[in-house]
Design brief:
165 residues; 2 domains; single chain; Jelly Rolls; PEP-CTERM protein-sorting domain-containing protein; 2 helices; alpha+beta; elongated; Ice-binding_C
């Protein structure tokens, strides 16, 4: 008698509290990408948003989500093409209805943003941006100038030591 009731309760829980897991491509836009997802009802979501970089680039990503009732992000992170963790983002659940996430790293290749969270209520969703820009690489002249400056400082220090003795 207890077994059929337990099975019925388990089935009812899965229907009422559905979970979404999705993998989709971010949309190329200007200097980076945009992404969004929306859903209805009380749900948990576990999404992977794919994008890529050309060469070594700084990656700055942000996401914001809202729901008609409680909404929160559990994870906002960058994973590689094999879904291994590369960088962990910061998650800010500022109120019962709004949440934010942000991360910054320097990488190259194919990646996913991993967005995990929950929403209670009628309608909810999130959207975000991924901005890629080339990481600054010093020119050889910069190194030459720095070494020249260190050499001059060394000469001055040596002269001071000689004058003091």
């Amino acid at each position: 008698m207890k077994k059929p009731l337990l099975l019925m309760a388990l089935g009812l829980c899965t229907v009422l509290n559905s979970a979404y897991a999705d993998t989709y491509d971010a949309t190329l836009s200007g200097d980076g990408y945009q992404f969004s997802n929306s859903f209805s009802g009380s749900t948990a979501f576990d999404d992977y948003i794919s994008f890529s970089t050309e060469g070594l680039q700084n990656i700055v990503a942000s996401v914001s989500g809202t729901g008609s009732d409680a909404f929160s992000f559990d994870t906002f992170s960058l994973v590689d093409g094999d879904k291994n963790l590369v960088a962990t983002g910061s998650v800010f659940n500022s109120s019962a209805h709004i949440a934010f996430g942000a991360l910054e790293t320097t990488q190259y290749g194919n990646f996913y943003l991993h967005v995990v969270g929950t929403s209670q209520g009628g309608t909810a969703g999130y959207n975000g941006t991924i901005t890629n820009f080339v990481a600054a690489v010093p020119e050889p002249e910069t190194y030459a100038l720095m070494l020249s400056g260190l050499g001059i400082i060394g000469l001055i220090a040596r002269r001071k030591m000689r004058d003091d003795t």
